[in-house]
Structure formats: C-alpha cells, structure tokens
Amino acid sequence: MAFHGPGRQAVCGNLFPGSEIGQKYFCVNPSGAGSASAGLTATPAPGGPSAPAGTIGGGAAVPQPHSNPASEVPSPAEMEPDRPIGYGAFGVVWSVTDPRDGRKVALKKMPNVFQNLVSCKRVFRELRMLCFFKHDNVLSALDILQPPQIDCFEEIYVITELMQSDLHKVIVSPQPLTTDHIKVFLYQILRGLKYLHSAGILHRDIKPGNLLVNSNCLLKICDFGLARVEEPDPSRHMTQEVVTQYYRAPEVLMGSRHYGPAIDMWSVGCIFAELLGRRILFQAQSPIQQLDLITDLLGTPPLSAMASACEGARAHILRGPHKPPSLSVLYMLSEGATHEAVHLLCRMLVFDPAKRISGSDALSHPYLDEGRLRYHTCMCQCCYSVPSGRVYTRDFEPSAERPFSHSYEQSMLSVWQGKELIHRFITEHQQGKRVPLCINPQSAAFKTFIRSTAWHSSKVSRKEER
Ligand SMILES: [Zn+2]
After folding, report:
1. What's the 377 CA to ligand 1 centre distance in angstroms?
2. Is domain 165-391 given the CATH code 1.10.510.10 in the classification?
3. Which residue, 433, 403, 408, is CA-closest to 420?
4. More confidently predicted of 44 and 96
5. For ligand 1, a single-atom ion, which residues have Cβ within 5 Å?
C-alpha cells in the first residue's frame, strides 16, 4: 500500500521491501506450494452453510461464493508451507493456509486450558477478548476451530490475521527507521491502546514483541494472555506479576496493589524511547535495578508519587542518595528526539501514574499529527478515496462501542462448568458464519505441530494471576 499524498515521501511499504519479505520471514517453497500442512480441514457444519471441504496446504483452495475476486490469487508469501512462527508462554503460533480461500493465517493453540479453574478463566477471557475486538490496531480472532465433542475437548485453536513481523524484530534489524516510521507506529500503538482502555481493558504486557507489524507499517497490538478488566475498587488487590520487566511501570515495580491503564502508557513511553534510540531504555538485571535506572533518569520521586508503593520499596528510594532529574539525556537518543518528541516522551515517562498522560490525551499531542495524517491517507480502513480526493472518517481514534464485560466469569465455578461454557461459546460463535474449520489429526504436519506444542507447553511454568 503506497502513499499517494502530495509532497510526501512514501513511507508505507518501505519498511521491508516486498521481495525480501519472503526470504526473511518465510521459507519459500516455489515448487510445492503447501506440501507441508498443519492439517486443517474445512468441514460443512451439520445444518450450517454447505460448501466443498478442503484441506489446508493440499492445493485445494476453495473459493467462497462471496469472496473478493482479487483475494483468490495468493501472493508468493501466501504459497509457502505451514510453519511455526512463534512460541509464547501462552501458546504456539503457526502460519497455516485457510483451505476456504487459500489465504495464509495465523493459528494459535491455547494450551493447558482445563488444568485448573484459574487457567480456564484466563483462556476464556483471552478468547472472549479476541472475539470482542473490532479495531484495526488490535489483533482479533478471525475464527475458532470447531471443537470436538465435549468429552474430547482439551484444546482451543484460534485463527487470527497473519502479520509479517513485530516491532522488536524491526528495532533490532538494520532496517532504517525514520521519524515518519516512528510517528506512524506510535500513532497506531496509541490508537489501539485508546480503544482497549475505553473498553475497560488493561493489556499489562505492552512490549515491542507484542506489537505486530506488516510491511506496509500497519501495526496491531497482540497477546492478551495477561490482559484483564480494569478494577474500579482500589481496595481490591491485583497481581504484580505483570509486564515484562524492562517495560514495567514504577508503581508495579514498587509493589502497588492496585493500578490502572497508566501502566500500559508507561510501557508505550519505554517503546517510544526505544524506537528513537534503537535500544532498550531501561535494561536492568533485576526489578530493584530497574527502579534505580528509572530514578536515575526521572530523579528521586516526591513522596506523593509513591503513595501506593509498598513500605520496602519506598524505604529503598528514601535510603538512597537524592537524585536530580536528568531528562535532557533524552535529546541524545537520536536525531529524531526533537523538542516535540521529548516533550511527549516526558509526559509518558512520569513516575506518578496519576500524572502520566492518558492514551487519548497523548493522541492530541502535535507530535502525532503527521502520523495520523499518514495513517488515514494510505493505511486505514476507515477512510476511502474518491476521484475528487480522500473522504476521511469522522472519528480518527474510535473508542470501543461498549465496555468488555467479564460477568460470565462469576458463573464459572468448576473446570467442568468452564469447559461447558467455552464449548458453548465457540459453537455459538460459529453459527451462521463461514464453513467451520477443524484439525485433521492424521496429517503429518499436525503431528509436528503437536510435538512442538507439547515441548513448549512443558517448558512453560507461569504463576497464575488474579
Ligand atoms: Zn481512516
């Protein structure tokens, strides 16, 4: 998607020049498109819409009656074999071909769902969120694979859009990152985050690796394994086992028992600085050193900024030498660290969460004006072009239509009950939609998939959260 605005250089599309994408991020297999397969099969649902079944990767792409004709010709990247693309604490992600239209999509297995009630609730929450999201800068579920009968129901597979890379890979790569790139990325991060926060959702693990990007610079926030609904009652305790350490807000580092959307904004500030300087802003060995690096930059916080901190953390700060702020070093991050950029950055990197800028206020900062213009001129889905020019949307940064509700969790009192609820949710979610997909357990690639999944699942041990 190229940029067509007058007097402006193309930035969208320059990040990973097209021909490199295949070699860099996918195994190209021009001779046998999809000879390996994760074994997905499309099956007509009983009573559902009828269409011929197809098998993923077998060359039997089944065009849908209403599909876009342009989408029926797969690009070279879409003809590559199925393969694993990522391993996270909460699942394994594979790149697979959807047999219904031949498109490459991401398939995620949510592991250990029914181990206990806490994991059952966590996975159901993530699943419901993925189905709830309707925003171009937030990854959402395109489909959920048809579950087997409830007695055999052990795993959940979700299909999402396949993205080519993530911001961590971009930052550590030798690819040039211009101010235009940084502005359009930051704009989209904040745009997505404003939407999440307006739905009452805290992401709690915003980091470059959880910001997926495409070659046209489109960005989507992903991984909602740690996300939860905002807690309005300040007396209710929330887990401190959140956010990758480098991006963890000072209030969490200081043992605050209650926190809000400001923790995500702190992470965005760290990422903004990382985009400018192309290195991690606060890269410490331990949480205490992490806090020390933060106070080295921001100076010793006043007592009022540590109101929610635990006693030990407050004593640690007060015991140390008094540090003056040294924010002027932010100008040395790079040439892109202009006065405007540093001004916005300093509004994000505020020790006191009550005084930290919100997502929607950050979007009003003049630093983001160009990113907004660029995004809505050549990248968005909400505006469109007519022969006489561009027709812009009325709301550039929409909020969620309604808050995300987690009231269903109250009725989940046992693992078996959870299983029934999730099974029903998936079945109802699919009704009347596309031809359902399911796993073909006989396929060789599926066996590979399961092996890698089992291996990674066994390595994962993570404290469950509240
Ligand atoms: Zn738009």
Report:
1. 7
2. yes
3. 408
4. 96
5. 376, 380, 382-383, 393
